[in-house]
Design brief:
The protein is α/β, with parallel strands linked by helices and 349 residues long. The protein has two domains: 179 residues, HUPs (Rossmann fold); 116 residues, 3-Layer(aba) Sandwich (Rossmann fold), CATH 3.40.50.1220. It is built from eight helices and 18 strands. The strands form four sheets. It has a seven-stranded parallel beta sheet, with helices on both faces. β3 and β4 form a beta hairpin. α3 crosses α4 and α5 runs parallel beside α8. The protein is globular and about 65 Å long. Its main location: mitochondrion. This is Probable electron transfer flavoprotein subunit alpha.
Length: 349
């Protein structure tokens, strides 16, 4: 594994301190219909590792915000919860949310030193938008961090080149607010604690007149199986499964027998075998389950980037030279159409 290092030096908006400030992280908590996303729980854990205060920010419609606040204030390490409700926040859009974050961070009484979120599609648009307005950089997909209280600098690691190299990035104290997103599989989810009870504070929304982007609709693929992003077991299929019908008929019974989520390679998704929400890889979801089964997947570098941190990787492929065998803990050179039905039957007994 290659490692590279770099240092970010950027003049941001002026904020003067007599001494190096103690870390105070603002964590953007994403939720859907009142249920906090698992990636945001990992972001809370990352924020706690900074060693200072942790404030959670909850936005949304009045229908859901209070329920999320009640959950957030009980998470270990959270010292305060800020919340803002508005019809405009019912389906949060970066163009609508960025003025609220900018107001929170640029106020004279703001003490935030870090802004944290999960590496989600929404956050990858929101955080850079706000950081650019404040003339500060954003570090994405962080897998580890360390804050030096003496110098006020924070050192991050993040994968680059599809995970083939690890970049070490140090953001010095000259950057008063450090923005970063975290890879959910690299940090444990924050745990709720009955002993925790954070301070709760309402924040006035910042209404955006005539927003340039309007939410039209959200389409979610429904399944009784575990969510791919947080499942402890994943069964994935590739282009070798021939078509959508064969993909479903072959993989789904095995996944059900294992209590696993179903994933797919980009080739399988592009061919129409599986929904885009099931794609695992550099341009899909990054997973790190206890068990990852790669069936008929050659192991292109883009796919490996999304699953190679899995605890146990099992690969089945007819090609003995398939790259997937280089990262597999258990490999079987065989026809998946012979192996999978037999394995499914044995698991059902």
């Amino acid at each position: 594994m290659l490692r590279t290092s770099s240092k970010i030096c950027r003049s941001a908006f002026t904020r003067s301190y007599a001494t190096t400030p103690s870390p105070h992280a603002l964590v953007f908590l994403e939720h859907r219909a009142g249920i906090i996303d698992s990636g945001s729980l990992s972001a809370l854990t990352a924020a706690e590792q900074l060693g200072g205060k942790v404030s959670a920010l909850v936005v949304g419609s009045s229908e859901h915000v209070q329920g999320v606040v009640d959950q957030a204030k009980k998470f270990k390490g959270v010292t305060s919860v800020l919340h803002s409700s508005s019809p405009q926040y019912a389906e949060p859009l970066p163009e609508v949310l960025s003025p609220l974050l900018e107001k929170l961070l640029s106020g004279a009484d703001s003490s935030f030193t870090h802004v944290v979120s999960a590496t989600s599609s929404s956050a990858k648009s929101l955080l850079p938008r706000v950081s650019a307005r404040l003339d500060a950089p954003t570090i994405s997909d962080v897998t580890s961090l360390e804050h030096d209280a003496g110098s006020g600098s924070t050192t991050f690691t993040r994968p680059i080149y599809a995970g083939n190299a690890i970049s070490t990035v140090r953001a010095p104290s000259s950057i008063p607010i450090k923005f970063f997103t975290v890879r959910g599989t690299a940090f444990a989810a924050a745990a709720a604690s009955d002993a925790s009870e954070a301070e709760v504070k309402a924040v006035d929304p910042v209404e955006v007149a005539d927003p340039p982007t309007v939410h039209v609709k959200t389409t979610i693929a429904k399944s009784d199986r575990p969510d791919l992003g947080v499942a402890s077991r994943v069964v994935s299929g590739g282009r070798a499964l021939k078509n959508a019908e064969t993909f479903e008929k072959t993989l789904y019974p095995l996944a059900d027998a294992l209590g696993a989520a179903v994933g797919a390679s980009r080739a399988a998704v592009d061919a129409g075998y599986a929904d885009n929400s099931l794609q695992v890889g550099q341009t899909g979801k990054v997973v790190a389950p206890e068990l990852y089964m790669a069936l008929g997947i050659s192991g292109a570098i883009q796919h490996l980037a999304g699953m190679k941190d899995s605890k146990l990787i099992v690969a089945v492929n007819k090609d003995p030279d398939a790259p997937i065998f280089q990262v597999a803990d258990v490999g079987l050179v065989a026809d998946l159409f012979d192996v999978v039905p037999e394995l499914t039957e044995k698991l059902k007994k």
